[in-house]
Amino acid sequence: MAPTASPKKIGIFFSHADTGRLDGLDIPRIMAFARELPDVAAVEELDPEARPDPKILAETIQRLQLTEVVIAGDTPGGHKPVFTRAMVMAGGDPELVRLASFGEVGAATGAAENSALAAVACAVHGVPFGLAVTPARVPVHPDTLVIGAGVAGIETALRIAGAGHKVHLVERAATIGGHMAMFDKTFPTLDCAACILTPKMVAAGQHENIDILNCSEVQDVGGVAGEYKVRVLRRARRVDPEACVACHACRDVCPVRVPSEFDEGIVERKAIYMAFPQAIPNSYVVDGENCLWVKSEGKKCGACVKKCPKDAIHLDEEPHSEELTVGNIVVATGFDTFDAELIERYGYGKLPNVLTALEFERLTNASGPTGGRIVTRTARRKRKTKQEEWVFDTEAPAPRSVAIIHCVGSRDQNHNPYCSRVCCMYSLKFAHLVKEKLPDAACYQFYIDMRAFGKGYEEFFERIKDEGVFVVRGRTARIEAGTDGMVIRGEDVVHDRIREFPVDMVLLAVGLEPARGAQRLAKVLDIHPGCDGWFTELNYNTDPTATNRGGIHVAGVCQGPKDIPDTVAQASAVAARVLGSIISGSVRVGRDSVSPEEAADTAARLASIKTQEEPWPSEPTHT
Amino acid sequence: MAIRANPHLIDELEKYGAQDVVKCYHCGNCSATCPFSGDVFVFPRKSMRYLQLGLSSRLQGNLEPWLCYYCGECSEECPRGAEPGETMMSMRRWLTARYDFTGISGLFYRSAKAELLAIVLVALLTGLGLTLFGMAQGDINIYDGPGAFLPAEKIHVFDWVMAGVLVVLLGINCVRMWWYTVGADKEVRIPPGEYIKQLFLVPWHFITQHRYSQCDRKQPWAVHLVLMLSYLTMLILIMFFLHRVQHGPAIDWKAHAFGYLAAAGLVGTTIYALAGRVRKTWTHYQHSHETDWIFLVLLLVVSVTGIIQHVLHRGGWTTAANVVYIAHMMGVVPMLVLEVPFSKWSHMAYRPLAMYFSTMREKALLAEEETEERPQPAAQTA
Known about the structure:
The complex is a heterodimer.
Chain A: E1 10-14, H1 27-36, E2 40-45, H2 54-64, E3 68-73, H3 80-89, E4 97-101, H4 113-125, H5 129-132, E5 137-139, E6 144-147, H6 151-162, E7 167-170, H7 193-206, E8 210-213, E9 216-224, E10 227-234, H8 249-253, E11 257-259, E12 268-270, E13 272-273, E14 285-286, H9 292-295, H10 303-307, E15 320-326, E16 328-331, E17 335-337, E18 354-356, H11 357-364, E19 377-381, E20 388-392, E21 401-408, H12 423-437, E22 442-447, H13 457-466, E23 470-473, E24 476-481, E25 486-492, E26 497-503, E27 505-510, E28 512-514, H14 518-525, E29 552-554, H15 564-584, E30 586-588, H16 596-611
Parallel strand pairs in A: 1-2, 1-3, 3-4, 6-7, 6-16, 7-8, 16-29, 18-27, 21-22, 21-27, 22-23
Antiparallel strand pairs in A: 5-30, 9-10, 10-15, 11-12, 13-14, 17-28, 19-20, 24-25, 25-26
Helix pairs in contact in A: 2-3, 4-16, 6-7, 6-15, 11-12, 12-13
Chain B: H1 9-15, H2 29-33, H3 45-53, H4 56-60, H5 64-67, H6 73-77, H7 84-99, H8 104-110, H9 112-137, H10 152-183, H11 192-197, H12 201-208, H13 210-213, H14 219-240, H15 242-246, H16 253-279, H17 290-315, H18 318-342, H19 347-372
Helix pairs in contact in B: 7-8, 8-9, 9-18, 10-18, 10-19, 12-19, 14-16, 16-17, 17-18
């Protein structure tokens, strides 16, 4: 380009309302910042209601005599073709239309506003964001903290520990394993979930480099990137895992019965319990909230202490805090499922045979309360109180028909607008399990769109249809108690019919939501949850495991709904990132450390190199 | 038969009040929620589909919008916020415009300005006509009896002429409705005997609004029924018992009691509906098309001026009574002339007719199915 050309005049167009994903970004402030950047001649806001018209834009470009255009917004790429056309119509250079994408740099909320500002500055100077925003490198502590010991946390811990580095694995529950430990089978291969997970759990439990902190929660994170000081609250386990040999003597004498969390409340456990026989650490634990001795402060019960042959039970144990120093933190807190009671018309909580997906996982699990027999819930009188209770009895009749309802709480603007990604496939898996165990039972899938997107998934869907499962396109509107079982009503969209027929069991394919406590953890770690509550990655496309803070990574569902293969893949990717930083001995401090002014200065400097036609510096790796 | 797609159908419907139709992803929740969705008429989702595909001809022959009473449950439960209830409402407006052979209806629905202008014009003409008519033959200080400014007997002739014209206009539109929805349909043949057998449905649904009463929510039906019955009572009093209600100043309680009840019903329900639309109390009050406001305001103006005129007349302020009477007529005439054949009032004919046609159609279809036995996929349990 000839240096004698007329001076640069850059116009910035904001299209912030294009997706509605932005939450709390101060657009007027960003626009004011943009106005101060060099060569910026105009800052305009696009009408969010109207589609941009190239003719009008061309007129604007001509009127303002713009030589370059920047489109800024959550996902401004959609507007690029229109602006390119407008630029051509205005007689300008179509190459000089650039994007400042907030979504791409993880700036969806007000907390990440600096990244949005920097993105605008980089686009104005025509410099890639990753080049201008390069946080400094600092030395890294070799130890790693993994928060959450589901399949993602265990996988990451095993990879890092396997490479010879110390890992602290913090888990809120008494055992590691997470949700996957509750599953019966995995889709689409129908492998036994426990057969995949329990060896990994044992490996983690026995690994000399893995320090499992169960019944624990991260309370506080201090320090700086490269050397975080983490305070972990260790709640009282009240049973010494080293001494306990899981002989079950304590369980047999415990008088307290409460719903079992691991079995999704479909059966009861004692106040001293082990979630499941393969729990790691393989030891009993006392539920302090329900133990008579703890509640009465030592005045009542205490039967288990007397019965224990190993003197492993210490009911008076107190919680304590532990301080850890780590260089990298991996967040793998997973999910909780949507509360089906929020959709009243499905009758969950009122109709005994309307089950959530996790309840059915336990019911159909060979190691579950019925030994894997699929039976209906039947009424029984409580022996003591004579109250009616609904239980799964192994001798109870099997359901003659099972309906599975997709998208419960997902893809619904009244609840969660996003797709939870796993429900279609696990619903198909359920259909297979029903058909396998109860060949005479009718099984119905009520779906909106079948999202069988993965390797082998579509084939699995075809297989299910061949097995005789009725697949009905249409969402069920309501489930009501009928004379014999329940009556389900939904539209069969393909056949243009309202279907209303009796069923014995209904499974609700509840969607995924960020785990309870994820918001609190985000505050503690100072990382950004997006609008839906899933943790925001640094760059959706090119850096999906890093966060805005140096050395803090996200793995698994806590970053967004995903299935087991994707979770394991992401967990391994995080391990590679962590190991990379440990091996190089350094980690970049967080992106938040780069102020937008700094980024603008760097971008201006880099842009000046470009005009002198010097080679670009190589892109730094982000670890 | 080839079907022509009209890519601008949604844009067209948006002028009639439809919103967010494109958001619909056809989960069928609305159809399954609706208590009226059954074996033959499955709605509102399918109508949303017609809109998205631009199938004007299908939509034109569709009776389903008239089977919906807009309880609003479908809109509340819609996971996409696609407002199926409001879409059905806008389709009723669109269908009203389609049934109308003059094209005036469509003009009014698409442009509130045109409707307001027409109302003002008709009102002014009415006012001018009545004033000139009164001045030519009476004294403004006399309300009834000899020398009256506007003698009831003579105005009554005008009433009947107007009624005749309106019945003819609406009648033609009703015939067009029959042709679009039943007559032109080659696939379903309704035996002529059925037309006579089911005819009772028209007055039955007109008087009771039986189907509306079957919605899960009863209050909107009750309000609507009170409004309709009040209006009907008033109409009967004026058309057939004018000699008893008009002459004053004595009050003929046997006739007037009905009048008072009807007036209270009209004022009460219109204020209820107006307040509901302002405060958006019910789902069906969330979105108000301009014509909804015009309709309610006109009705309220007519009711209130009617009451004032009555009070003035009985109180002996005859001059004022004459003036207010002209004002009352300036509301009544545009309301009837413009709304009955061309706008919202027309549904008093289309609704009961739709029940009549749909029942016959349903019977014919089910009878056909019994002989043919359509394949039944995935419906029976083991």
